């Protein structure tokens, strides 16, 4: 028996899954002021009459970190940044309480300028004097050599509640994003810490002894207790939950599009051979570009409740939402009202819907039904245009080898998954326009909770082996080890695989869910003065995102 | 913040799976650390820096400007179609107005490739700037184009291709040909009889530093460009003037390169040489991209940069000042030179010996141009390489006059193969290419 809970922006959903079947669902409105309370209520509701001892696994997806960031309810963070030459600080993310200090690691991971301990200590004193309790320490190219970040954090330790280090959060290159990511991690650390403790206390009080997981932005899980120092990994897990839900409810091992049509927005995601696509570098939240792996989604300002206007004889839909559909007592005509008039959906008061459309019909010199048809068409077209441009963008992604240039995969979806309120009303028309078979999963209304319940653990690992320097570095693990000069890519992959397996188990993955794949494998001869000085081997591995074993490529729930 | 923000297109194609040979400077590793630095600085996250995937050039794009022997397919690899395609993509993004300027950070390079191509010379097979320039003219109409070659090696291929073209100004600054490959690019190489002054060479002495480069840029290149009034300025952007370059002897820095691009403000920059792949390219490229995008580059510098140690001597400064004055003097006299040089001749011939150092091929060439006041002049080439291939080519220039066109067409029609392996006809106005 698996319990999945998604604390969303509007609703909190829970599902109980047993033997490939949804046994029970529950849905309550979310109380943004007290997420823990939502969790209590929904869990109590769904577990009534159940034996908690029979649970094998509990997975949560929560907007806690996301909300804290969006609503600016974060802790102030003191940043200690060693940027060296490059972009001037004016071009780096602007975070108050930032101290730029000496120190520089170059692209090979060689220390090109030392840090100055006195400078760092005095920055620490100043920050403490300002009442700062949380720090972020970031260096350029720290993923290539974390030594300076580690040393800096060591010099500051003891005086602060928490210090986040850039290299631990992602193995990717991107100094600006590393700064932002580290900042966010430290800024929500205190809040998340409390949440983790409260949740653990609560579940133990319910007699649940199994591991509790939290969903990450990439649609993977992380054992809650182990995630405490990495709260930033849980931002924007909402869309991930919904995509993973679709994945669980559909037979999906081909290229496909997934649409979540909500009240205000429509979220688009794309599957390549059944695997959801991830952002190249990381998700963006409130203008903070991060290095947090996340599902690649595109959101457009169009939903069932978008305001419909008519300008110069043209129907415009969204992006504003000013309340529910007119048929449900809202102030303006909406696509939902049009769908009611067209008999595509049967909610609310049809008379109110027609009345709301009447002024538009007057403006356009059309009947109310014709106007409704125009609105429906305009809404479909806006969605399909966004889908097409999203897919085109994915297919035009730059590549860096001749091989990829000439043989690169192009996404060509033939399948369209649609969830959300207007799904049934719109799926067929959208499918027709996109040349895709439409598919509406059952239990779509709790897709998020199902997605969370069934997601497996994910992680990635970046391995750099420099045989000239006889050094292997795994940035995000803070690992540097000596290697012989005749080291090969195969050996780097073997070491990485072992480390990644270790990491996966530590994050709470089950042995049978660990599927490691090589996502990057490059090897360069380093030539100095006409002689081969060594090899530069670059490997990236990941735990393949997907569903826990037993739920992959099976009959729908 | 310097100047105003510009939308800059970046076409980055490091060809991580292509090398001339495993230890050749033009190998897989060349742009590896540049990629690292560009990614680590997060340049692609700026809203006004937009990365584009390169297109693939077609062999028709090559045939518009080159005479490849025996044909384009046999002298190039896919990598050349991608690097030329990358330059074309850069041009398209700029000319369509999608971006304000663009940088094709692509390899392999092209500026040593001449009109006739028997093989590779100076690591170049086909001239990617020239392919791009003719693509622009074909698709966007005739344009006055200035190519400023800032590679440390004389841009002899580009110079040779546009030697007779009055609508293409080729300016090359480079290390003095007496001290570096390809051994040409002296001030007296000044363009063909119909295009005098349209080739400008500014050789600089070894150990020239930022000061010297920026001096000739401000005192010679910018005034000449002001007078020429190009529709487009292209930077043939080699990065081997850098003080750490292993195969040259100059002292230019990342700051210098950035400043150069800020002042020159090219519409399109195309990467050429530059083989200090760890100590120069990462910093130089970050500097150039920031400068083109109008972003502050003042903090970009090499970790081992010491301005004092790189300062050029007073002797070098005075030498450069004299060269600059000499070039400007020639430029100002360019219109009066034709009569003295050509006299009453109807045709002018020049003989060339071209060595393809990369492929070890030797070519003897005789080029004949019709002296013409109305266009670049009909060009005929008799070329014999030690591969045993002898060819003859008739080239009708872009914006040709009726007489040059007629003579070219008639000549090619009459021509029999005889001792030639192949005969070629290239009509740049009508985009016709015939090989027989």
What distinguishing features does this structure have?
heterodimer; A: 557 residues; alpha/beta; Nucleotidyltransferase, domain 5; Rossmann fold; 4 domains; six-stranded mixed β-sheet; 14 helices; 27 strands; 33% helix; globular; B: alpha/beta; Arginase, Chain A; 2 domains; eight-stranded parallel β-sheet; 13 helices
Provide an overview of this structure.
The complex is a heterodimer of chains A (557) and B (436). By secondary structure, chain A is of the alpha/beta class. Helices cover 33% and strands 26% of the residues of chain A. In chain A, helix 4 links the parallel strand 9 and strand 10. Chain A is globular. The model of chain A is unreliable at 553-557 (pLDDT under 50). By secondary structure, chain B is α/β, with parallel strands linked by helices. Chain B folds into two domains: 8-334, 3-Layer(aba) Sandwich (Arginase, Chain A); 345-435, no CATH class. Helix content of chain B is 32%, strand content 21%. Chain B has helices at 32-40, 59-63, 72-75, 78-95, 128-140, 156-161, 210-228, 254-264, 281-293, 307-310, 314-332, 337-342, 402-414, and strands spanning 8-13, 49-52, 67-68, 101-106, 116-117, 145-149, 168-175, 199-204, 232-237, 268-271, 347-356, 361-370, 379-385, 390-396, 422-427, 432-435. Chain B has an eight-stranded parallel beta sheet with strand order 2-1-4-10-9-6-7-8, with helices on both faces. In chain B, strands 11-12-13-14-15-16 form a six-stranded mixed beta sheet, with helices on one face. In chain B, strand 1, helix 1 and strand 2 (49-52) form a beta-alpha-beta unit. Chain B is globular. Classes of the chains: A alpha/beta (557), B alpha/beta (436). At the A-B interface, helix 5, helix 11, strand 26 and strand 27 of A face helix 1, helix 4 and helix 9 of B.
